[in-house]
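Fig. S4 source data, part A: sequence.
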Amino acid sequence: MVGLYQCVEEAVQALRGFTEAAPEVALILGTGLGGVARRVAVTKRVPYERIPHFCEATVEGHKGDLVFGTLGGYNMVVMEGRLHYYEGYSLQQTTLPIRVFRRLGADILIIVSAAGGLNPLYRPGDIVAVRDHINMMGENPLRGITDERLGNRFPDMSRPYDEQLILMASEVALDLKILLKHGVYIAVAGPSLETRTETRMLRMLGADAVGMSTVPEVIVAAQVGFRTLALAAVTNVNLPDAMEPISIDGVIAAAMSAESRLADMVESVLHLMKQKQAGSL
């Protein structure tokens, strides 16, 4: 059986055969939010099926391409098509790209996702900067035989979301006149959406938004040493006493309504990072 470290190395070597790009920032795009990739000046596009140990993206709206290029003055690698636990993959499989991006040289990770709102003050189309999370998936991507080459088996999770990046996101949101909310994201396994009672429970646990991704990626990102920013587009607001039916088509449509503002924010955060980086030299 091929170990996880070997899988990462084989994927890295294959990608280095496709491109000499050395990404500084990795970007993961969620359901209905793939259009953010249109801002990237693309130098190379690699389908997942050409990368060893990458899984097929099977969710509607997820292309399944790894995109290399530039945005905001940074060399980027963009995951245009996220992998999910509910697709039948293990969390080690869905988070393998995070390890590959770090080995390629990226040290900033930006995650953009769609999420259901639990906070009654949220509205569809709101953008939330994730400050913390709760893992309710019943699984952890670090579970298994330890391999020190992959990182600390017990990574510190006191601040998995980078405070400086959150501050920069807040700063650019003000400039762009975008009302940026801050909240706690809770991850569930899916793919079924939440019942009224489940919604009430998740809110009681302290969560502001719920989704089926992000958290496993952030756990691995913490293990391998990424600075992480996660932004979630609220697709619907679940009020347990007045819940309305929601479909995946509705989720995608609502996410797309926030797409251009999210793209503006991501690009502006990158520009601000570059300015601060230049100012510190």
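Fig. S4 source data, part B ends here. The first strand starts at residue 25 and ends at 29.
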